Amino acid sequence: xxxxxxxxxxxxxxxxxxxxxxxxxxxxxxxxxxxxxxxxxxxxxxxxxxxxxxxxxxxxxxxxxxxxxxxxxxxxxxxxxxxxxxxxxxxxxxxxxxxxxxxxxxxxxxxxxxxxxxxxxxxxxxxxxxxxxxxxxxxxxxxxxxxxxxxxxxxxxxxxxxxxxxxxxxxxxxxxxxxxxxxxxxxxxxxxxxxxxxxxxxxxxxxxxxxxxxxxxxxxxxxxxxxxxxxxxxxxxxxxxxxxxxxxxxxxxxxxxxxxxxxxxxxxxxxxxxxxxxxxxxxxxxxxxxxxxxxxxxxxxxxxxxxxxxxxxxxxxxxxxxxxxxxxxxxxxxxxxxxxxx
Amino acid sequence: xxxxxxxxxxxxxxxxxxxxxxxxxxxxxxxxxxxxxxxxxxxxxxxxxxxxxxxxxxxxxxxxxxxxxxxxxxxxxxxxxxxxxxxxxxxxxxxxxxxxxxxxxxxxxxxxxxxxxxxxxxxxxxxxxxxxxxxxxxxxxxxxxxxxxxxxxxxxxxxxxxxxxxxxxxxxxxxxxxxxxxxxxxxxxxxxxxxxxxxxxxxxxxxxxxxxxxxxxxxxxxxxxxxxxxxxxxxxxxxxxxxxxxxxxxxxxxxxxxxxxxxx
Lengths: 342, 264
Prior knowledge:
heterodimer, A: 342 residues, alpha/beta, six-stranded mixed β-sheet, four-stranded antiparallel β-sheet, 11 helices, B: 264 residues, mainly alpha, 73% helix, 0% strand, globular
């Protein structure tokens, strides 16, 4: 049974329409015209216990609106939601006990107090039994290497240290579901890796379900098997990373280092992408020609000292989808809906 | 007990947090002493010119001004300004994701801060007594004062709460704050006793909610209100308290609805 389920989830925001100019301002004071903006439209998805799903989309796509509805602080305009058996907005406080939230951009730690004091406060808030609290705190302190700064006031922590503290804070009460919103923003590579390792371990060892919202697709590639893509409020893809790569990433790049200079490079079934000095990048469709064949064609005609093949990165695929829109090649990509859409 | 535990912890943390600003605490005592001294000189000079109402003798006036200043140490702590700050920074969203009753959180946070400032009353009073004489009323009057002060504390809390919750609609509440703060300072009897307002104006001011904050407990303290008048005075305070608490509950409910519908 899925732990998170939404069906035809929809959220429409109503804002006051402002007419420009002084007369317009006066007009808005007395008569109110509203503009409706659809933030989330017909989002249907289901997550199983222990899944680690990347929820991605461009800015303003409706990601945080969805997360807010899942956490219960936003009431959907229509549609259904269930998170661990609860309707979040109807039972917000009960739902709060099941979830943990990490925001990369805002901390939930007490700014002026030592880190560990924030943890103690959370122990009181969630009523975590002392033993459980001690066990979790020591486990997280070790995993996140927080021993050195547990007693340091939060305002004196580096961003990386603070984020580690925020992760521990979100998970002390053993939430079944954790929402991560841009958790690695602004972190250096070492700190990023520490966070990723932590998430992967908690996910594997405790079976915690994660929804990861981020623009850093390296996070997603490293952690998630499944991604859900949203654009203009609608789900446009829900499936594995491999599948989207297969469908979108049929193009590979052959990077060739030449040992001679040639005035012109020309190979059938491949397009010259870039040429800098003796380095040549050839883009090819692996449906039209195999890498093996292409290498043979190149080496037959030119003197080559080195070759390598670049796989498409998730990032470049997603970028293409943002720009061109998602068109499912061949069959429909949306997973079978639980109920047939009318 | 366990249901209250988070809130006790909030108060404890607020107390600890406030205590980290030791310098501020010391300077607030220093500034208070200066104000006590200035007020004593001012009232002495004014009384020498016969500029005061007959109902309050000079020693009672100086007592009034000094006790009012000590009360302000507690009453000027606005725990609910956290609401405004958190709404503006957007962190209020994460607060809603916690299994807590938010208004109670803001109250206990404010209470923890208040408690630390209340502790500074003791040294402040001890030092103040070096250069002013403060009348000490009967034990019964002291007890009535304490109760009346407590009622005033809650009236003040809910008034601040209401002011800060406005942030859910306007984000910037500075003008509202300033106006109400100014009105409250003047009309609550913190600066001058309400007896100074002439005729009909005095009667209006005495019946405004602000009087419940400073004026009522202070009039009990200096003996202007006889014991027979205490129940009615405190009933009026309690009335304002209930009214503001109801309004606060109502406005909070609307604010919450606004967040869940409009997304804060």
